[in-house]
Design goal:
Its EC number is 2.1.3.15. GO terms for molecular function: acetyl-CoA carboxylase activity; ATP binding; carboxyl- or carbamoyltransferase activity; zinc ion binding. The chain has 9 helices and 9 strands. The protein is of the alpha/beta class. Strand 5, helix 4 and strand 6 form a beta-alpha-beta unit. Helix 4 runs parallel beside helix 5. The longest helix is centred in the middle third of the chain and has 20 residues.
Length: 280
Amino acid sequence: MSWFKREKVGISTATANKKEAPDGMWNKCPSCKKPLLNLEQVENNYVCQYCSHHLRIGSVAYYSILFDNNEFTELFPNLTSGNPLNFTDTKPYVDRLKDSQAKTGLKDAIRSAHGKIEGQELVIACMDFAFIGGSMGSVVGEKISRSIDYCIEHKLPFMLISKSGGARMMEAAFSLMQMAKTSAKLALLAKAGLPYVCLLTDPTTGGVTASYAMLGDINIAEPGALIGFAGPRVIKETIKKDLPKGFQTSEFVLEHGFLDFIVDRRQLKQKVATYLKLVG
């Protein structure tokens, strides 16, 4: 017979006394699967401290990283999409827009702002993937166009941060027209002699890649970003061949001459500021 007797099995805690970690305090790295404390993510510019994977972030985070003291003036904040085609798929397009606006707190898939980066004035248009996959609709094209007009009027450099699944199918040809519209506006920016910086992030695909995302005076990307036109699965099924290792990653795109360099997000502000000083 054993010389001790267990009174209770395990640790018993009353339900009322149990405490859960607050939502949003922890996240998991999609690459190495290790837990990440939200506060540490912010301090590390949303880059995993274990494997350096760049987490997907939106305009709020990018502006806090790039603009001095997170101070900026948002441009054209109230533009919203119409429904010119009365489009309906699993739900009416109008309802999809309202749901996305309520969920994200955004008006559409892009925000534009005027601020300073290391003391130098800059206009940054940043896409938000959380809003219908960062899709390019008429509002996206209009905000970019108006931002370029603003830059020309005030003689300011322009930076665009791309993060998109491509054209917005709910607007059909109206969406595709934004490719030509933004490209024409960028030609005017170049004619005015003002710098245009493109930052391609994960993912940058479809009509966005085929237009303004690759037209920069300098094209840079974050490490490991998916950059391409059609997706790798579609390409593989079309050509009936296996794709090279790392196909459509920013490293692959750099190797084939479509990027100027890849920049770690933790050095992004310094690199962009240095470029602006060189060309200013």
